[in-house]
Amino acid sequence: MTSEASLSSALEGAVVIEAGDERGEFAGMLLAMLGAEVIKLEGRHGSNSRSMGPLTRSEHGPEQSLCFSRYNLGKKSVSLEFEHPAAGLVHHRLGNRADIIIDSGEADDVDRRLKFYREMQKSNPRLIVCAITPFGLDGPYRDFKMTDLTQLAMGGVMASCGYDPRPDGTYDTPPIAPAMWQANHIACEHAVLAIFAALFFRELTGNGDLIDLSIHEAVSNCTEVAIPSYIYNQAIVQRQTGRHAAEHPTRPWLRRTKDGRYVKAFMFWSRHEARVIGEMLSEVGIEHDLDSNTYRELCERSPSAGHSHLNGLVDKLAASMTAEDLFHRAQAKGLLWASVREPEKNITDPHFQARGTFQSIEDLAAGRPLYYPVSLATGGSMPLTAFERGAPRLGEHTREVLDQLGITEAELKLLASQGAI
Predict the structure, then answer these.
(1) How far is CA 361 from the centre of its chain?
(2) Do residues 194 and 213 touch, judged by C-beta distance below 8 A?
(3) Model confidence pLDDT, tens digit, residues 129-185
């Protein structure tokens, strides 16, 4: 088996049912990326994420959301009102066909649907159910209301992200959130890992499982050194501008460049770095003393003063060059430096293009192809994961999926007449 087949077809033949709201969509998309057939149950009016911006047009519509398009690549859409009394004739057959169910939303909503999934597991004991809720299905916070931003706040991530404190260690700026949908991404990545563990367990035992995933707990697992520092050193880390939170302040790494952008100049403050930076300064005609006895004596007498002196020269170097030029020159000399880029600049980056990271997928609503990040790995020169199609239109696959379940034409008409599809 080739590496391409082993990854992009890892879940080939597996059927995933996705229900609930936008909080679990990334997990379903990751499973689709690995070859699973992901059937999204949306109801007749579509998922709430279909109304989330940005939109391809000013007017709202079920096919206009770029948010929905991004997180539902490669899925099938079935406009079935899952909890409608008439939908009972679908439940048993759907459960027998499915390997995995992902349901996300408020704990009450997911818990209410669990009774259907438990019935499905009676006839299909190999069925794996993954519930993604703000705080899990039990506990004192079970019914608290949360958004992506408030999850980042309460989970501890936001406290480690922000700008440098004042010299006295206090802050005059608030914590900041690192990125949009970060809490949902973290939770969905944890969900996929748990699902794969359940699949391995099923191979050993023949039994499915119920995964009760708390977004709050997943986010709290991703606070870097904050928890170890507190537990082992009784220390609280400080947030810093463009740097990892740390128990003690570290020197700034962001440098303003000639074109008004920034470069992240990571420094170990070694003699080798000073020599290389001296070479770069000489190449652009900036005078320096990094190869002098005076600088060496300064570093021996006061390492902190030596660091400050080198720091100032790096600022001068950055100010003399564009961000991309400095990035490539520094990398050519083995320095751990990188330009700070806007995300969209990576679409045309030659490295991403060579690895097939972004895929052009036709978007009917936009009337043109749109680029999506689809691959994290390659098998030499070919991307190992991709999508045969973009996000589905509302109800695009309803008849196809119900036909595969053996729902007759008469049953389809009955479901439609009673408002279940």
Answers:
(1) 20
(2) yes
(3) 999 999 999 999 999 999 999 999 999 999 999 999 998 889 999 999 988 899 999
How many whole angstroms separate alpha carbon 272 and alpha carbon 208? Answer: 55
Q: What's the pTM? A: 0.93
Which residue in this structure is represented by tokens 């909503």? 109
The rounded distance, in Å, linking the Cα atoms of 362 and 371 is 9
SS3 label, residue 133? strand
- Number of neighbouring beta carbons within 10 Å of residue 206: 9
Q: Tens of pLDDT along 214-273?
A: 999 999 999 999 999 999 999 999 999 999 999 999 999 999 999 999 999 999 999 999
Amino acid at 71: Y
- Residue 42 vs residues 112, 144, 253: alpha-carbon distances, Å: 16, 24, 46
- How far apart (Å, rounded) are the C-alpha atoms in residues 247 and 288? 33
Answer whether 209's CB lies under 8 Å from 202's CB. Answer: yes
Q: How many CA atoms lie within 13 A of 110 on its CB side?
A: 30
Contact call for residues 114 and 102 (beta carbons, < 8 A): no
Give one DSSP letter per residue of 199-260, joined into a string. HHHHHHHS--EEEEEEHHHHHHTT-TTHHHHHHHH----EEETTEEEESS-----EEE-TTS
Answer for the pair 368, 374: CB distance below 8 angstroms, yes or no: no
Kindly give, in sequence order, each residue whose CB lies less than 8 Å from that of residue 118, ignoring residues fewer than 6 positions away: none
What are 235's two structure tokens? 């220390």
3-state secondary structure of 56: coil
Pick the closest to residue 372 from 359, 385, 386, 387 (CA basis): 359
Contacts of 277 (CB under 8 A, 6+ apart): 290, 310, 313, 314, 317, 335
Which two structure tokens, joined as six digits, stand for 419? 């408002």
State the Cα–Cα distance between residues 94 and 86, nearest whole angstrom.
14
Q: Are 71 and 29 in contact (CB under 8 A)?
A: yes
- The Cα 410–Cα 414 span in angstroms is 6
